[in-house]
């Protein structure tokens, strides 16, 4: 959901101390009108393309400049933090800045009986836009660095502990986004989500793909950030498990029924 | 105390220029209702687990990728800054986001004669939740990287100058949190506390554990961030000394009696 | 355009939920009076000089301290993020903090039929000030590090994939600035633009000059950040192509006609 | 001057679009009462001590962990950015968070005929507190790392281009602080000043001491961040020149008479 929708459908006005009664100067601010679906689809496509171009491109640049793999990952993660935060800030008011089928799916699921979130029709447009964008971003990164435009990655990522890493990475992402939403603070998403990914690059063994569209896009490049096509299905499966774990944690800590029953 | 409690019990409304009369758009914003104790305990447990998983996990990742110990600590500290800031922002409105028995203890102590802070009953729930979470986080990090789930650390940290480092690290943390609280600015805690720890990793000789629960959790992993069980008691003792020093500095600089007497 | 002008000419007040009806506490805040053109020119000149001194100076410092080129670029990009963000925050209320003929040109173009942005007269003052400042900054950096004050760079940057990188870098910059402007959020420009450049240093093959004045200034120093004079025209040409691409993307995603027709 | 004083004495209320009419949610917010001089002195002393402990301590840690001097400076500058930002945020509402005789002097000078800033009596308390604090911080850092508590630095820093670096570093600092003050945006000082120093570590040849008290303190430790006593006077002299240059730039760009005459 966008910050707009959170305001329109949320618990605003229940109380004089409710957060939504406060000014909301941070990213994700209210656009003047609801953007049409075409603009939303364009935002998701361009955003996903830019995100993958950032991840793949900075990985190539890093491997060209240093042989220290730790430094390569530090450059890669730092560039991603900066870039992802900007993309969420820029496109948040248009589409909600998902760039991620796992997030779109979780939003549709939690909103299916009403409440803020994408509709089924929107989800059916978002997900293909995200995947097409992610592949385009991978190709664009390869082109910028003079690499073959499409070359399947040979980077095997199928070890069991990597799969656990993906569950943790995605569960944390979902917990963060929906926890912010339940406390009416999605305006912090640009900094919070980017920072989370910056940590998750390092503390999860899988370097935190946490995004099915990005996972697919990264299969198209045989560079630092690539993933072998044979490892893609396993990663995406674990990401979906992570969505379920994340939503369960949201229910535990942020207790959706609380405001009603108490 | 949470930002909510600071607002409810604070010096709000004394003056038209009082800070609490200002909008409070930053992290730690007011939740619609006071969360029940179960949600608070869950937030402290999940938060402490995530914090230790970040510290331990990023340490393992760093040592796997580079041999330069300086770069290992830079990756470790950078991941911690990002992760800790997100955790405080996310869980602040629920539990106050202590994740740290030293902070919980200091809050109970300063609030024992009234004022904002945890009650004795809350403290008695928070501290065990923090310790259980911290141990779980250590085990989770080991699992994600295919390390033995529990293996006592062999990293001795008992040198006298390291103990001084822990006093300084904890005193600074307490000074920061309670200084922000006394000036009604706990909404800056996510960025401020995370940044402080980012500096303290480097400027204290002990790399700034500054947290008894995290210290216990880090004894369970024989990796970069571990601490030998025999060094745990010394670190925790110095952290408690740091709490006292920190509260004394708060009294010196922020002068609690000022608002009343002047 | 400055945040002031965005407020004065923007879509403020169209709706009770319009963003401009919100407080605007972030950088780029409203100055009490419109600064005179001389102050604006001084801000653009000093700002461009400082920007190039930061880029060139940190590049020299980095090459003096380490042989790892990856680390050199990490230091260079980190210093630029910090410095550029400060410069935009500081000079934004005076001149809009362009420091960049591509941005000035795009603003004049979009504002030529009315609306917020620089006038032709302002643009004719801004661009020379930016170029003079950029050259001065390069000379200053060389002087601070005991390098020859002016020595043409020998760093050839003419490969085709580098040119594509400049198109992408500049298109992204324009999309960001004008996307923020169209959603009345230019107050986030200091952090957003600096973060964008921090990512673009790494994910574009050209390390993201994205600025004709800075490109000219960097030809005057034969150090890490230099560019051979023979490569300058190609870079600037691609930057102008990037402006066109960026404005097209703004039209696609942020749909300027939307507010009117819907 | 503190943000409080800027609000009390500033150009607030001149216009409905004046910045001070906006909410001020950022660091440097208004304390409920004016702190007494003892609290201000304590804040300046503790703050300067912490600042030097951060600079010196992180330098020692870095040299113990890596042989790459570039990485040493990156760790040193990163820790300083985080730590300085926190210190300004924490102590700003008490003393204005100068920690720097150059800033105190410039404030007294600009305020001597009225307007916001420290009085002569305050300046006479601030400067000794800053110097004592800086020396104490140096000794504390040495103690934390098991170094001799006081050992004169042998690090010669007297080359001419380093002195130019110090002029540039201090001029930029003064331009930033007073530029923010003139546009009523001192609430951004924690992030802006810390970021500026983060850039100036790298883009000035002197690594930007820009502070006479810190310069004195750093003479007391023969470690990474030290400065030979024989180089101290030269650095301080250049810092004073930088103050003059910085105030001249403020007059040029921010034109103090503008609000009156226009």
TrEMBL record, chains A, B, C, D:
Transmembrane found in the keyword field: yes
Presence of the UniProt keyword Secreted in the record: no
Localization per Swiss-Prot or TrEMBL: Cell membrane
One Gene Ontology cellular component: plasma membrane
MF-aspect GO terms: water channel activity
Residue ranges, compositional bias (Pro residues): 22-35
Annotated spans, Disordered: 1-35
Major subcellular site: membrane
Topology in the lipid bilayer: Multi-pass membrane protein
Record field: transmembrane: 41-60, 80-103, 161-181, 188-204, 224-254
Keyword annotations of the record: Cell membrane, Membrane, Transmembrane, Transmembrane helix, Transport
Bias (Polar residues): 1-10
Domain of life (superkingdom): Bacteria
PANTHER family assigned to the protein according to its UniProt record, in alphabetical order: AQUAPORIN TRANSPORTER (PTHR19139), MIP17260P (PTHR19139:SF199)
Family: Belongs to the MIP/aquaporin (TC 1.A.8) family.
Record's protein name: Aquaporin family protein
Organism, scientific name: Streptomyces pluripotens
